[in-house]
Specification:
Elements lengths: L2 H40 L10 E2 L7 H8 L3 E2 L2 E2 L1 E9 L10 E5 L2 E5 L5 H9 L4 E9 L11 E5 L2
Antiparallel strand pairs: 1-8, 2-3, 4-5, 4-7, 5-6, 7-8
Amino acid sequence: MGTFGKAKGLAGKYAKKGLDKAGEVRADRQDAAAHRDGLAAEAADLSPHHFTQEVVGESHYQKALEKAVGRQKDRDGSYWRGTAEIRHDDKNKHDRWAIVVTIDGRAVGYLPSADSNRDLADDLAGEGRLVPARIMGGFKLDDGGRAYYGVELVL
């Protein structure tokens, strides 16, 4: 087999790997969508909840919040409601008792640092807990930009 034949064979091999990877990504997206639908069913009626727990650091996670909101927004901002997961972030180098907040598997912020986070981290015991959540903000500003998204939880 000449050099051209080897190159053609390698190109086909790598092209197949690329197709396999695309199939994996597609399957991951379908799994995430099914998971989201399941969480939405669990949080079907969030209207009686009082969202009193603020989340901090959302400015660092605007892309993740934008993905979570999707099309659930208009010029007045987001109206997304669903569930978030809270989990002890034991690898956080700034706060030993940090509690990370995730939506759809993406970090969207943290619970504010507090002494009570140690008890909550112990209570979570390495597991996550689903809690009702809402995303607010994202409304259009006078200058044409959009306001940051923010997250509130029910704990």
